[in-house]
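Q: May I have one protein plus its fold?
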Amino acid sequence: MDANQRRAENGGRVERLARARPDLPFIAPFMVYLLLLALKELDAPHWDWLFTLLRTVGGAAAIWVFRKHLPPWGKPHWRLATAAAVLVAAGWYYGQYLFNWLGVPHWMPLPLFGDAPDLFKDPRDELGDGPAFWTMVTLRILCASTTVAFVEELFWRAFLLRALIDWDDFERVPLGKFTWRSFLLTALISTLEHPANWAVSIPCWFAFNGLMYWKKSVLFLVVTHGLTNLFLYVWVIYQAVGRGNASAWMFW
């Protein structure tokens, strides 16, 4: 079997899978990313750069495999996305300090998540402040600004916002259709993905959902989400490394 035949056969398998499970193109990239994210539990800080690279490439590859079965991406609305990203990133960062000041538990207070890890751990304690540290920083920011934004927006805004309206036939639900049920549930479920910043994830998801209802563009949300992560992580590094604010590592 030559290369063209193998590609045709693989394409046929993907086609059959996507027809049988139309939710798979939206869920699979997110699941691949989360599975690779679990490599962090190996507690091998000097390999963090490799784990980050694997989940960056793995999530992107899953999107590429199912690219023909995804909905229209829409317009990016760059200027609006940039402005929204600045506001959401600032809300996430300073909102967490506000919740801390109010005494809201920083770590998700559920037995499922166990005891809080060291949320203020400086990675330089194990990596030093040389090439290993900056390679890890660069790759993590790259991953958060690209792959994370794509896999999360496909799952949360393109799929789950619609699936919580009509789970059995979500494809018939227009992108950006509003119901209180899907609006509130997606925001609440988002806390399970962000146990270290669960309280601020709720208003963040309210904002992202609202932007999706407004522009009804998946690409707009991808760009907004990616820029939000970029601005947030750059600000964290500026605060933690540039200004010596050790508490900023709680966002890392």
Residues 4 and 34 are 31 Å apart (CA to CA).
